[in-house]
Design goal:
This protein is mainly α. The protein has helices spanning 2-11, 13-21, 26-54, 56-62, 71-84, 91-95. It has one domain. Helices cover 73% and strands 0% of the residues.
């Protein structure tokens, strides 16, 4: 999230400078940046939940006793997903990487 918002601010540096030159306060600029961040977050949440519901039929086929729109399952997967990027890759995936033994 940080890098996407940072990139957007970098791309809008001239616009932000012009707004400040025309009298915009720091809170106005902060509101502009936060609005973009909130829109990205809400869009990601909607897209993720919609994808989860659409792909839930596949999930139901593999898991016994899970309803298509089980709120506990959706909430637990949503809570665990930010941590999945921090897990190390399995050793089998590292085996074929160039420069690795």
């Amino acid at each position: 999230m940080y890098s996407v918002i940072s990139y957007g601010v970098t791309q809008r540096t001239r616009e932000i400078g012009l707004r400040v030159a025309l009298g915009a306060q720091g809170s106005d600029i902060a509101r502009l940046v936060l609005k973009d961040g909130v829109l990205l977050t809400v869009g990601g949440l909607i897209t993720g939940l919609l994808g989860a519901v659409l792909l839930s039929d596949l999930m139901v086929a593999f898991l016994y006793g899970i309803d298509r729109t089980d709120p506990i399952t959706l909430a637990s997967v949503s809570a665990a997903s930010p941590y999945s990027g921090r897990l190390p890759p399995p050793p089998l995936l590292l085996h074929d990487m160039p420069g690795r033994p």
